[in-house]
Amino acid sequence: MTRLWPKFTFLHRALLATFLFAHPASPMASPSGSSMEAGVPLVRTGLRQQELSVPVPIPSPRPAPPEQKEQLQEDKKSESSSANNAPLPDEEASCRASLTKLGIDFREQKPIREENGCEVPHPIIIDRLSRDIALEPDALVNCTTALALARFFATNVPDMAKQHLQKKIRGVQHASAYVCRPRRGTQKLSEHAFANALDIGAFILEDGKPLPVQAQADAQSGAAKFLDAFRKAACGPFKTVLGPGSDADHADHFHLDMKARRNDYAFCQ
């Protein structure tokens, strides 16, 4: 036994050395070793998550080429034109033809529909009341009102101006045409809310002097007689005529409108 121990010891050592070189021992685990080995993928995963959490800027859209911009503008104009060029009802078309015969130019406007009920399906803008009488400023009205004005100023006004003023009327200044509002002191919509009325504040004579619509100090003056004749002649062609003396609201203008009433009744004061 004494002789075998050294051999066994030498053999044991040789085998142990062979085993160590063939299978190197893993390093000693440190308190942080396992966490570091497992931490590598965690760190990488964290970086990926951080990268994903950074917002990626969205590139601004490239400006449309000039040709495309022009095409878009033309398309919009075409859509607007199509809306304005929709076929008119026969009554509206006939009304416009009559205006043209009387020498009244007009500009078509888009339909008006307000939330509170103001509505003008086929509005137009006029800047004249006859071939010889201008309207200032331009007025947005419906065609029925425009035609009534054109006929009245072409057939009635010239003669009464010549008789009472010995001068021609060259212009009219209006105070109100289309306005989306109720009647003063009520909730009922005014005829102005339907472009169905015109308020005349003054007449412009051929010498450029204005004749305001107001009560005249001398009831026998030419101005007073003209205003009185105008008011009386307007009752019939227009369904409502109000002016100085009617009430305080109409002390400085003539209100003319085409409000339809039963039996074609006209209200004039």
Keywords:
269 residues, alpha+beta, two-stranded antiparallel ribbon, signal, disordered N terminus
Report what the structure shows:
There is one protein chain. The protein has a domain at 89-268: Muramoyl-pentapeptide Carboxypeptidase, domain 2 (2-Layer Sandwich), CATH 3.30.1380. Helix content is 39%, strand content 18%. Helix 4 runs parallel beside helix 5 and helix 6 runs antiparallel to helix 7 (222-234). Residues 1-8, 25-47 and 75-83 have low confidence and may be disordered. It is α+β, with helices and mostly antiparallel strands and 269 residues long.
Gyration radius, to the nearest Å?
Answer: 46 Å
Order of helices and strands: HHHHEEEEEHHEEEHEEE
Q: In terms of per-residue confidence, which ranges show pLDDT below 50 for 5 or more consecutive residues?
A: 1-8, 25-47, 75-83
Using DSSP, what is the number of strands? 11
Annotation field: number of helices: 7
The helix fraction, in percent, is 25-40%
**At CATH's second level, what is the architecture of the domain at 89-268?**
2-Layer Sandwich
Our measurement of the CA-to-CA distance between the termini, rounded to an integer number of angstroms, reads 151 Å
Give the integer mean of the pLDDT values.
Answer: 81
Q: Return the CATH topology of the domain at 89-268.
A: Muramoyl-pentapeptide Carboxypeptidase, domain 2
- Relative strand content: 15-25%
